[in-house]
């Protein structure tokens, strides 16, 4: 396997040492970073480290205020909305935290063209124009040709189609872009090699390096946007945020034609009754969103329906730029298939309720974000 530059950078660090380094960051160092941010001085990666360190949690109010100001100046008072479409729950990999794991004896389903059209029509009728398609990791049941055809079909309904599927080769990504997809979402899940090994026990997903290299392949193939993420709740979250930031920083500098954005999924219970190993508090979660915003001024930050109503209500205007709404996490979910969900959603409000919420906060809900860009 060809080592990308990021893999080489990644291998220079040790997860346990990063935890130690972050724990040693003093309040004075954090205050220096906040002072720089307040005076609009350019921040460096050391500043980002300071902001994600445990001690920075004492400065939540200052960070929230900076994050709000930066978000408004870069994105205006807007929140983009998107909805996921699960195309398949077939999966040949096993991740201990996921309901779709290969060993789980659940009813498997891959949507055919007619079924995809039904889901698309339901979402289109709600006014949504940006979708995210998802599959498990089954290279034979949902091959690249299936993904590619699905993207082509869905482009008849939506301006923006993002993919969150298994990692591909560069030429395969190019094929998917050619079919009409503009965004690659690929979450590393965890950047801790030990944790990665313990929780990904079967299939292609076992290969941490192959996954770690995938955003590079996506960047080289020309995606308009690349979304990175870490699944918070498996290991030390501060160190996860360090590596997520390192990854984002590298991608942003290397593939300048692609916008980098972030998601911070926090673990939710699922069919395997898997519960978070490490508790990530709301205060930590907020700190991480603010830190991303203060350092990555122009990056999109997504907020999923995994989060509580209260948190989603209060985060509007404080750093996030995009929210999913009314999400169903099973194939055929919008036409009531009763298949098994990948994880439970917390915020089950309808799209129109979320639009009203955004408006009530003085923000505009954007259903078609192309207009903002072109
Ligand atoms: S997280 Fe993805 S790869 Fe892992 S079991 Fe679930 S669907 Fe399969």
Please provide a written account of the structure.
The structure is a single chain. Helix content is 43%, strand content 14%. By secondary structure, it is of the alpha/beta class. The chain has a single domain (5-373), classed as Alpha-Beta Barrel (TIM Barrel), CATH 3.20.20. Helix 2 packs across helix 11 (237-254), helix 3 packs across helix 4 and helix 7 (144-155) runs parallel beside helix 8. The chain is globular, with a radius of gyration of 20 Å. Iron/sulfur cluster binds at residues 91, 93-95, 98, 100-101, 136-137, 205.
Architecture blueprint of SSEs:
Blueprint lengths: L4 H6 L4 H9 L3 H12 L6 H8 L7 H16 L2 E9 L7 E2 L17 H13 L4 E5 L9 H12 L4 E5 L5 H10 L3 E7 L3 H7 E3 L5 H14 L3 E6 L6 H18 L4 E5 L18 H14 L4 E4 L5 H7 L6 E3 L26 H10 L3 E3 L3 H4 L1
Parallel strand pairs: 1-3, 1-10, 1-11, 3-4, 4-5, 5-7, 7-8, 8-9, 9-10
Antiparallel strand pairs: 2-6
Helix pairs in contact: 2-11, 3-4, 4-11, 4-12, 5-12, 7-8, 8-10
Bound molecules: iron/sulfur cluster (SF4).
Iron/sulfur cluster (SF4) binds next to strand 2.
User: Which word captures the global form?
Assistant: globular
- The CATH first-level class comes to Alpha Beta
Q: What percent of the residues sit in helical stretches (DSSP H or I)?
A: 40-55%
Q: Find the count of extended strands (DSSP E, 2+ residues).
A: 11
SSE series: HHHHHEEHEHEHEHEHEHEHEHEHEH
Radius of gyration: 20 Å
Strand order of the main beta sheet, please? 1-3-4-5-7-8-9-10
- Which range does the strand content fall in? 5-15%
> Regions with pLDDT < 50 over 5+ consecutive residues?
none
Figure out the total of helices: 15
The CATH homologous superfamily corresponds to Aldolase class I
- What profile does the largest beta sheet have? 8 strands, parallel, barrel
Indicate the CATH topology. TIM Barrel
**Derived structural class:** alpha/beta
Tally of discrete structural domains: 1
How far is the first residue's CA from the last residue's CA?
A: 38 Å
Q: Mean pLDDT, rounded to whole units?
A: 92
Bound compounds: iron/sulfur cluster
CATH architecture: Alpha-Beta Barrel
């Amino acid at each position: 396997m060809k080592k990308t530059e990021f893999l080489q950078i990644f291998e220079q660090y040790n997860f346990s040492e990063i935890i130690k380094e972050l724990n040693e960051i003093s309040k004075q160092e954090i205050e220096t970073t906040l002072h720089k941010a307040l005076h609009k001085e350019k921040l460096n990666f050391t500043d980002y480290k300071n902001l994600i360190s445990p001690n920075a949690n004492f400065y939540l109010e200052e960070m929230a205020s900076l994050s709000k100001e930066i978000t408004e100046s870069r994105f205006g008072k807007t929140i983009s909305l998107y909805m996921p479409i699960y195309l398949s729950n077939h999966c040949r990999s096993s991740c201990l935290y996921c309901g779709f794991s290969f060993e789980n004896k659940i009813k498997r389903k891959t949507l055919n063209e007619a079924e995809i059209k039904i889901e698309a029509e339901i979402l289109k009728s709600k006014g949504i124009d940006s979708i995210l398609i998802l599959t498990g990791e089954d290279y034979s049941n949902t091959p690249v040709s299936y993904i590619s055809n699905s993207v082509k079909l869905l482009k008849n309904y939506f301006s923006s189609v993002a993919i969150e599927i298994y990692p591909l080769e560069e030429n395969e990504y190019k094929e998917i872009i050619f079919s009409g997809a503009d965004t690659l979402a690929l979450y590393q899940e965890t950047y801790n090699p030990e944790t990665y090994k313990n929780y990904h026990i079967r299939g292609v997903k076992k290969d941490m390096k192959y996954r770690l290299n995938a955003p590079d392949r996506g960047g080289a193939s020309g995606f308009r946007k690349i979304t990175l993420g870490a699944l918070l709740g498996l290991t030390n979250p501060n160190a996860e945020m360090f590596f997520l930031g390192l990854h984002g920083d590298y991608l942003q500098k290397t593939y300048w034609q692609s916008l980098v954005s972030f998601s911070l999924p926090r673990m939710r219970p699922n069919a395997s009754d898997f519960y978070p190993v490490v508790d990530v508090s709301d205060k930590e979660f907020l700190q991480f969103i603010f830190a991303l915003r203060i350092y990555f001024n122009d990056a999109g930050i997504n907020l999923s329906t995994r989060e509580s109503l209260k948190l989603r209500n209060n985060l509007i205007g404080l750093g996030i730029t995009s929210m999913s709404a009314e999400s169903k996490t099973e194939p055929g979910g919008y036409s009531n298939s009763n298949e098994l969900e990948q994880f439970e959603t917390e915020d089950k409000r309808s799209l129109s309720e979320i639009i009203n919420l955004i408006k009530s906060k003085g923000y505009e809900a954007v259903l078609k974000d192309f207009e903002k860009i072109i």
